Amino acid sequence: MNLPKPFLRTLRNVHADVDAWVVGLPETLAGLEALWHIRVTGLVPQLLYNLVAHAERADGTPCILKLSPPSDDLRREGQALSLYAGDGICRLLERDEGANALLLERLTPGVSLQELWTLEHDDAHTRVAAQLMQRLWRRVPEPHPFRPLRSWARELWDYEGTKIPAPQRVRARALLLELGPNTDPILLHADLHHGNILTTAVTTGSEPYLAIDPKGIVGARGYDVGTYLLNPVQATAKELTALAPQRLETFSRALGLSQRDLAALGFVHAVLSACWDADNHGDWDGRALEVARGLEPLV
């Protein structure tokens, strides 16, 4: 299997021993095909941090195979999907922690809100996201295997570059400590953006959307709004800033949370995302930081 060069570069930036993992990949895939009685049919386009492939089960049912070099991230995703049990999100069909692999329900037609988005449909899409958040947020008993939001957002403390101004990082840290305690941990999706909300013919009732790709993070109810406010990717920072007040009003009404707290969590996530972008990507464009500056007056 020929893996795209940009995908390999990303893996090498994130994981150790990637070359050994790639060499062993054919054997790993053959083992998973035999174990789960599937046939891998091809890679999905635009791979990022995980190898994701289309597959078919023995009866012809389409599914998704997802795997990566050893990491806690994919393990937590599998644990979150197991807890959700298909409520508001794609179903976990199989899991192999030794191979760091998941077999997932393939959502059809699987068109994302990112593909469907227009300015005119933005409020309707925001209501879709709010409904999914309500389905996905749930308390988790202690002890649990999920990562605390404070730990996941450690880049707010660890960032040492110059692109993200110190005042924004200081304020983001203070707001996270104010709003993000884990005394009543809520399982968040933590990446509920337009690209991770797909149309599906499986859902019954009036809401034909399900989520994919949860991160397995616990923290403040409402934090998922932050990811949404930075999306879709084709919208400019100016457009996202202009949309924020109406989005916050819609989320506040649907979720029963104050607009100020949601704006604060949006600001925290935008600054965190800017730190990640500045540290991990050569194509820094300042977009997340610009959105953070637009949200700050709303806090």
Automatic annotation (TrEMBL):
Q: Which Pfam families match?
A: APH_6_hur
Q: Which Gene3D superfamilies match?
A: Transferase(Phosphotransferase) domain 1
The record's section on InterPro entries has: Kinase-like_dom_sf (IPR011009), NH2Glyco/OHUrea_AB-resist_kin (IPR006748)
Q: Which domain of life is it from?
A: Bacteria
Family annotation (SUPFAM superfamilies): Protein kinase-like (PK-like)
Q: Name one GO biological process term.
A: secondary metabolic process
Provide the GO MF annotations for this entry. Answer: phosphotransferase activity, alcohol group as acceptor
Recorded protein name is Streptomycin 6-kinase
Q: Which organism is it from?
A: uncultured Truepera sp
Classification of source organism: Bacteria, Thermotogati, Deinococcota, Deinococci, Trueperales
